[in-house]
Amino acid sequence: MSEVATTRTPAFEARLKKRYAAERRFRLAGLGAILFSVAVLVFLLGTMTFNGIGGFQRATLSVPVDFDQVGLSLPPGVSDTGAVSRALEGQGLPDLVQFSVERALGKQAAAELNSDAWRLVAEQVAEDPALLQGTHTFDLPVTENFASALAGDGHAELQPLARQLAAQEKLERSFDAGFLTRSDATDPQQVGIWGALKGSILTMIVTLALAFPIGVLAALYLEEYAPRNRWTDLIEVSINNLAAVPSIIFGLLGLALFLGVFPHMRSAPLIGGMTLALMTMPVIVIAGRNAIKAVPPSIRDGAMALGASPVQVVFHHVLPLALPGILTGTIIGMARALGETAPLLMIGMRAFVATPPDGFTNPATVLPVQIFLWSDEIDRGFVERTSAAIIVLLLFLLLMNGVAIYLRNKFEKKW
Amino acid sequence: MSPSLLLLLALGLGLAAWLAARARAWSFRRSAPTVRLSALPAYHGWYVALWVIVPAGLFALIWSAVAPQLVLNSVLSDPAAASLPPFGMQRATILAEARAVATGAAPGVFNPAGRAMVEPFREAIGRFDLIGLAALLVFAFLGGAWAFVRLKPDFAARVKVERAVMAALVLASLVAILTTLGIFLSLVFETSRFFGMVSPVDFLFGTHWAPDPMSRAEVVDGSRYGALPLFWGTIYIGAIIAMLVAIPLGLMSAIYLTQYASPRWRKWLKPTLEILAGVPTVVYGYFAALTVAPLVRDAAQALGVANASSESALAAGLVMGVMIIPFVSSMADDSIAAVPQAMRDGSLAMGATTNETIRRVLIPAALPGIVAGVMLAVSRAIGETMIVVMAAGAAANLSANPLDSMTTVTFQIVAMLTGEGSFDHPATLSAFALGFVLFLVTLALNFVALRVVKRFREAYE
After folding, report:
1. ipTM of this complex > 0.95?
2. Which of B3, B264, B330, B349 has its CA 20 to 30 A from that of A348?
């Protein structure tokens, strides 16, 4: 009588244990891979936030200015900030501000007052001319060296003074709303991102105005009308390849073609927007085709059966139903274009632009390029400002992607 | 008159034409109630509106490109222009300044030589604005009138309008071909100019890269244009270091997400991973330069490497790898999902554990798709610009040490084109040759990868 061999021999048990251990290790490795990516993301965002918080602040001296002492006056009818600044400069406002600091905080502190501090006073006067009577306290920016001394970072000779003034609460770091309204400057205490942000907005308007209609029309054609032939294949291959061509190549195209045709529009949002539109268009076409494909054929058949022409079927029925999907893809493509730097460097949007662009043909820079330019600066103050600009850029991207996700969840239909 | 104003005017005229033509179509119906219109009145409106907007709009676009040149020519023929300095920067500045003052963009001229030019400019701009406006109105009127007189009760307006819509659709899809063609031709053109100065053999196989944009353009030293170190740096950073990070991490992430993670975890982890793909490259570049590169250098020095560079290939490659993780992960995700469920079930039914099923069945079956995904990831990594511009160095080293500073094709394109070099200099043109190589390589990678994916999909369908 032969014994039935048991399956669960000791060797088998040992093997099974090993196999289960391998299973656990494999699973942990997978989890580890994901957690590593998440950790890098958290670390990246954490570094930017940590550095960037300081970028939204600046060190200011709190200084009482006695206007009665000199008797400044505004010429009648002047209310424009630039004109007010010029008028007050002529009447000696810079000296008055300098003197006020010297009297209130001493000569050494006055030497560390930012040379543009008086402009801040002039701006506030332009808003409220009544300030020119009596004594008012202003928060005035300091020099870059003094700001870093306050942060305890270099400039040992200034640190005692900075500590002393900080203890008297005359010198403090406070939220710098001007960072969002000023433009590029050479002094990190005076920079702002409004110019770059406006350039980005103008560029995005051009990109959207070109890429959206072209992308949607091309997607409609390819999905609804295109005959199966060699031309259609060629178009499809081109679109798939364009979606994968490195962005810097589009920059080379913009440089060789667009700037060849419009040589006087170097670094204009129009050219930047056209370049980015070529890059964004394939993304919109691909997303659009998927959205159009998802519309069930019964819709088309129904419309057709009621006598609609092929164009009416598509524009009255298919397109409205596919639109949420197309819009989601468009927003994602636009978010990519907003963060794009390399092609815009190629077409010269890296110039120092100290005033916000007034139109589509004025020289401008965009937010990512501004970040790149600031990251090249040697001054320590720019590290914080760069991170702060990155936070603004990331917030914009987050907003756009949030809208895309909202659209997708709200309008997505399961047929 | 600004281009946008002209375009707006064309659109406004189009609206007027639309209303007028629709009213005309209604009047057909009212005057003879028995007659049946062969198209809805709105289609009559669209027909005439298109005949107004298209000619007038095209004219506005062309005019806004041509008018500045016409204005300039007219100003230069003015006697006041005789005293201008000859061609060059100064002349251009004076003219630009005078134009700005004449259009009211600037308060006053800085250069006294420009003051005499303001009046001719103002006069020429005024004259050409009037000419443009008049021509636009004539175009709009002629187009509109031609279309309007053709309106009849039995006029097939809808067919005509739909034909125009189809033409617009075809034109829009041709933009893709034109863009590809534009890229190809402009790169070929500039590259051939470059190869007229530097031999292709020197360029492709030389090992010394040191173009000098400030040297005289006529004297070309071909031995300074050896791009091999750039190709090596690009491959080393983009295809080796970055992939060593991205392939294992991306693949394992995809496996965990598709095979192990509970739906709730998956719902949170997948978008989080996708955030990594949405971070702009300039942010990665800053992160690499500010945080990762010093870390790498300090780690290397702690390990006893004395001359570790703070612009190491390793730092740029690592960050680039992290950037690519979500891309590899989503490609692997798709490939694994495409493997038929029956294969997985069969393996599990035979008693294999999940990880044995994944390693012995799923991955081999999904391998073509994964390889294609990796090829696409490589093509993306070697075309990546900002990370290497900000974190890798400018020195062209042919070295295998990841701590050395290395430069890449994209870095050199940026370096050559953002300098002060003239457009006819071989150093500037070399950027287009590098771009052409990059374009061809990414094109080849994508082409092969897409074919592999397609065939792989068909195999399981």
Report:
1. no
2. B3
